[in-house]
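Title: Comparing notes on inverse folding

I've been comparing how different people in this forum approach sequence design from structure. To keep things fair, I'm posting one structure and asking everyone to reply with a full sequence. Here's the target:
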């Protein structure tokens, strides 16, 4: 059984990262660290979700993975919306830096120019971030100690 309150808590980590990633301007020297922190947010989702859930490590890992996957979907949607200017972002923010990395062809996107036009970028971005965050959430959720409930009903 999935503990939805724990999953919602894990998604809260992504929402905090989204707010910071859209509103805080950073110097260019800090962009690699900020982009790495955004891509590692799935660990935070899984940790919080796994810590708030109970049961054995597999149940915590499943909860962390679900929180990571849902949080990754939220982050990918907001990131894509910020790239297409549907959501305003501060210049030199983390999401602006991610858009700059993609648009400046530093990841080889010039070989696939159709990928960066219109809505086409959303699908690979969504798949990449959801899978990355699900794996990160699974790892972080499984290694947490979870809630300590030693009642006989919970130990089965």
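Reply #1:
Here's my take.
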């Amino acid at each position: 059984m999935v503990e939805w309150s724990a999953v919602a808590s894990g998604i809260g980590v992504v929402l905090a990262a989204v707010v910071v990633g859209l509103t805080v301007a950073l110097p260019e020297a800090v962009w690699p660290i900020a982009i790495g922190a955004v891509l590692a947010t799935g660990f935070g989702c899984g940790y919080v979700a796994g810590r708030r859930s109970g049961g054995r490590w597999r149940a915590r890992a499943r909860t962390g993975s679900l929180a990571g996957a849902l949080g990754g979907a939220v982050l990918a949607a907001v990131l894509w919306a910020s790239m297409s200017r549907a959501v305003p972002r501060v210049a030199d923010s983390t999401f602006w830096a991610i858009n700059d990395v993609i648009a400046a062809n530093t990841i080889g996107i010039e070989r696939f120019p159709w990928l960066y036009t219109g809505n086409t970028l959303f699908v690979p971005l969504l798949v990449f971030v959801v899978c990355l965050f699900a794996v990160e959430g699974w790892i972080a959720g499984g290694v947490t100690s979870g809630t300590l409930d030693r009642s006989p009903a919970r130990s089965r």
